[in-house]
Structure formats: C-alpha cells, structure tokens
C-alpha cells in the first residue's frame, strides 16, 4: 500500500491506497478539506461559522450540510438534547476557543439557550430538513439565525469529512483504501484492517483489537482534548458541562459520519436507545474502568 500523510483540521491524516495517488486526486482532496474547513471551522476568522458567531443573518452552506444537520437532529432527539452543534459557545467559554486560551472565563450555558434562534432549510431538490437519517447531501442548505450563534460540529464533522474524502477517491476509480483522520477512519477493499482500540488513560496500551472490513470506525475519548482538571471537549449540550461518567467510546458503522456521531452519542445515551435509529457496533469504557459493548465486539476486547 502507498501512503500519503498530511496535517489538516488539527489532526494527522493518512490516505493508503494500492497505487500512488495521482497529483490531481491529491489536489482535489486538499481542496475539499480546505472548503470544508472554510465552512465549519471555529478556529478561522473567514469561515461561515465565524460569520454566524459575529451576527444574525442568512447563511448558505454546501449540500453536504443537509446530511450532517439531519444526523445532529436525530442524535439530539435520541440523547434528549445532549448532542447539539450549538454547544460551541460553551466550549469557548470553557477555554477551547479560537485562540486556544484554555482559560475559563464564564459559566457555560445549555445549547437550548440558542435553539430558538436557528432554523435551516434545504434548497429545492433536497430531501427535507425533517428527515432523521444521517445520509444524503441535499441540494444546498440555508441557515437562518436571529442572534449570534457558535456552531461546533466536532461530534460528527470529522467523520463526514472522511466520507467526503472517500468520495473523491472513489470518483477517481480507487476502490481499495484506508482513510485515517486520527480517531476516525474508513476502510474499503478485500483485505481487512486490524485496528487497536487505544486505552484512554494510557496511549501505549490497547483495550482490544478489531478487524475492520468495508466499514468505518470512529472513537472519542475525554483525554484527547483535555486542558485542565475536569475540562475536555465532550460536553453535555443540556448543561454545557464536560461529561464525567464515560471515558471513551468506539463505534463501527457503514460510514464515518454516522460512526463519529454515534461515538459522541454513546457518552449520553444507552446503546439500545441509539439502535432504534442506527445500525452499529460499539465499545464504551466508563471512568471507573467498566466497559460495555455490542455482541459483535465482545471477542475483540482484552480481559
């Protein structure tokens, strides 16, 4: 396998393919990632999200936003409001801001405080804003806000970007690949991939190993972005406060956006509740060392 490595959206990426990627395909991947970052990043002043945070208005998003927002709608419902992209303001208040100040400067607030200020619609030809499925890109999305809001799509956005990069590879005729964006990866091809599940308290250890074949694996852990006692990036949108019961989650699904969103939702909801809307496998490790998992994952965990 040939591997291309690069840094993007704050993490290390690798694209592994049987043959070297043509320069035009690499350029298309780079352009896609730049466009995505220019839309969704909280950390650049020229992004659409930054303009939403500056003031109310009407904002145009690419068609891929429809699938992402539908996924957030579904996860918000299944977690009783714990997963919500409007959690961005609380992340900033707790110090995970555009300047990476890592300094708490005020009380966090529930995302519900801004919920009534935001609405979104798809352009004609889309599949409707009310759908609960995670897939589909629609024909374009308009977000309207009546007050400044701070979006943070970290709960599922990196997974969606992995899927979009896979789409570029497949459009170029690549049918075997591994796209790895840190804790989010997607595999396609005849040869399965063995992946270690990193221990959340010791990166040198694994709690198990799984075999991934034509699916996506996404993980989330409270140690990944941690900047103080009890301060990390996984917030309960109902309170704006970091979670403290679950240490790490892993979700396997058909696409990375769904797996990424479910890895976040597993911090808040029982897997059986999430299974009402999604087909997935999972491992969840609690802060007291206990773990639960789906039957298909039981054999991959170390005792």
Structure description:
The model is unreliable at 127-137 (pLDDT under 50). It is built from eight helices and 17 strands. It is an alpha+beta fold. The chain has a domain at 52-145. The two termini are 33 Å apart. The strands form five sheets. The protein has an eight-stranded antiparallel beta sheet with strand order 1-2-6-7-10-15-16-17. Helix 1 packs antiparallel against helix 6 (157-171) and helix 3 (64-78) runs parallel beside helix 7 (256-265).
Q: Mind describing the biggest β-sheet?
A: 8 strands, antiparallel
Cα-based radius of gyration, to the nearest Å: 19 Å
The residue ranges in which pLDDT falls below 50 over 5 or more consecutive positions are 127-137
User: Largest beta sheet: what is the strand line-up?
Assistant: 1-2-6-7-10-15-16-17
Strands, total number: 17
Count of DSSP H/I helices: 8
How much of the residues is beta strand, in percent? 25-35%
What spatial form do the alpha-carbon principal axes imply? Answer: globular
Helix-strand category: alpha+beta
């Amino acid at each position: 396998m040939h591997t291309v490595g690069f840094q993007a959206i704050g993490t290390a990426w690798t694209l592994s393919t049987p043959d070297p990627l043509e320069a035009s395909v690499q350029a298309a991947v780079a352009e896609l990632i730049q466009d995505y970052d220019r839309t969704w990043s909280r950390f650049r002043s020229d992004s659409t999200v930054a303009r939403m945070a500056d003031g109310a208005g009407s904002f145009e998003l690419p068609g891929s936003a429809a699938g992402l927002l539908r996924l957030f709608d579904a996860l918000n419902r299944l977690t009783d409001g714990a997963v919500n992209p409007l959690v961005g303001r609380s992340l900033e208040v707790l110090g995970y801001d555009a300047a990476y100040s890592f300094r708490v400067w005020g009380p966090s607030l529930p995302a519900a405080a801004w919920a009534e200020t935001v609405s979104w619609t798809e352009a004609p030809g889309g599949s409707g804003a009310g759908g609960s499925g995670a897939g589909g890109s629609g024909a374009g999305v308009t977000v309207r806000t009546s007050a400044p809001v701070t979006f943070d799509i970290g709960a599922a956005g990196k997974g969606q970007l992995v899927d979009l990069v896979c789409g570029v590879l497949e459009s170029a005729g690549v049918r075997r690949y591994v796209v790895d964006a840190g804790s989010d990866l997607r595999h396609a091809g005849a040869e399965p991939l063995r992946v270690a599940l990193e221990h959340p308290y010791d990166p040198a250890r694994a709690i198990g190993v799984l075999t991934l074949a034509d699916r996506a694996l996404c993980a989330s852990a409270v140690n990944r972005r941690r900047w103080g006692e009890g301060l990390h990036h996984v917030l309960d949108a109902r309170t704006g406060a970091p979670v403290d019961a679950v240490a790490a989650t892993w979700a396997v699904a058909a696409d990375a956006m769904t797996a990424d969103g479910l890895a976040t939702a597993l911090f808040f909801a029982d897997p059986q509740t999430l299974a009402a809307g999604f087909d997935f496998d999972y491992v969840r490790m609690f802060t007291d060392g206990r773990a639960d998992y789906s039957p298909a994952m039981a054999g991959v965990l170390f005792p």
